[in-house]
Amino acid sequence: MNKKKLSLIISGCFWVLLAFGQTGTAKISKSDWDVFSENNEAAEMRDTLYAGKISLKLDSKKQAIAIRKSLSLKNFRIDLDVAGEVMSGIGFRAADHQNYHFLYFRPGYGGTREAIQYVPIYNGALSWVLYNYPIYETAADIKKLEWFHVTMEVKGNNLKVFVNYNQTPQMEIQLIDTDFNEGSILLRSMFGTSYFSNVMIRERPELLSEWEISDQFPRKPTLDLNAAVSSKTWTKVKADQADVVNICRYIKQPDGVVAARHTFNSDTDREAILYFDFAGKLKIYLNGKEVFYYEKNKLDRIFNGTHQLVLNLKKGNNELIFITEGDASFFGKGFNAMGRLQHQNWGFMAEIGKK
Fold it and tell me: How far apart are CA 162 and CA 182, in angstroms?
């Protein structure tokens, strides 16, 4: 491998797009959705033209809920247009018809703190009085039976909701901890008619948050550690709220090199995408094979998904090992931290997604 080459790097942001029809029109297809009445009886899907948009109509009675078939998501982004009479909602991570996270809109309360509400649905219970403002309810500029655009992003336990292309989220909260952390998407109307149009769902990669790091080894001109590194101890570490595994947090005098390892399971032999960024130097191994090596000293601000690498996973357990060195050599023998020559920036972030 050419050690100066960032092999198999794919530029740009990777999404698994689950759109209905052509991108841009995003027509909802009967083959992708199951519709049920308020009595949980199978119903016929009703698509209609409403206020200039081809849309799914849910009247809250004969057609009350639509569930996306053959879909199980944990992290995702959904974009759609909504026009509703009383309550129009989006369910996600749905285990079944009775258990899911639910975000819904009250157009009649547009401009008030009750316009948007999030609740977990347990066994069919819509517990709106238990989860309310100032955290689980918030304001939005929406009106009855007028189209508004919704962007909803779910990553880990974080939910962000943007209305009408606002750059600042109307709602940003931590999801309630539940037993249903992955599942399908559903659309629901209650107490009146709702219309849904231009629905696009994009799966987001999964953060690799749990790692173990080796003892610290001395720096050398090259990263000579490999996948067979032997360490007396392996310390459990995790990514912080910024998705960064900050090695300096765990090493009292951070001036060397460590190996970080993460093991995960794959149901089949398949290809996946590793999204990552780092400071300093980095070598990556997958199941003992070197797949990436950057030997220069990288000192740039890091962001999710800056670098992307195709991984060939095997069925069963797979082990990723990052050989990582911080930025000390960028400053010669190290940055002077109150009399100690050491790293200042030493860490990485990593996510994995479908190819």
Answer: 22
Q: What is the C-alpha to C-alpha distance for residues 86 and 83, in angstroms, rounded to an integer?
A: 10
What's the token pair of residue 244?
């960064």
pTM of the model: 0.79
Of 203, 221, 244, the domain-final residue: 203
Q: Is residue 248 part of a domain?
A: yes
Can you list the positions of beta strands (E) in 179-224? 184-190, 194-203, 206-207, 210-213
**Model confidence over 152-192: pLDDT tens digits?**
999 999 999 999 999 999 999 999 999 999 999 999 999 99
Token reading at 55: 């849309």
Question: 197-220 burial string, b = 16+ CB within 10 Å, else e?
Answer: bbbbbbbbbbbbbebbbbebbebe
134 cis-preceded (ω within 30 degrees of 0): yes
Amino acid at 167: Q
SS (H, E, C) 111-127: CCCCCEEEEEEECCEEC
Q: Which of 203, 221, 240 is the last residue of a domain?
A: 203
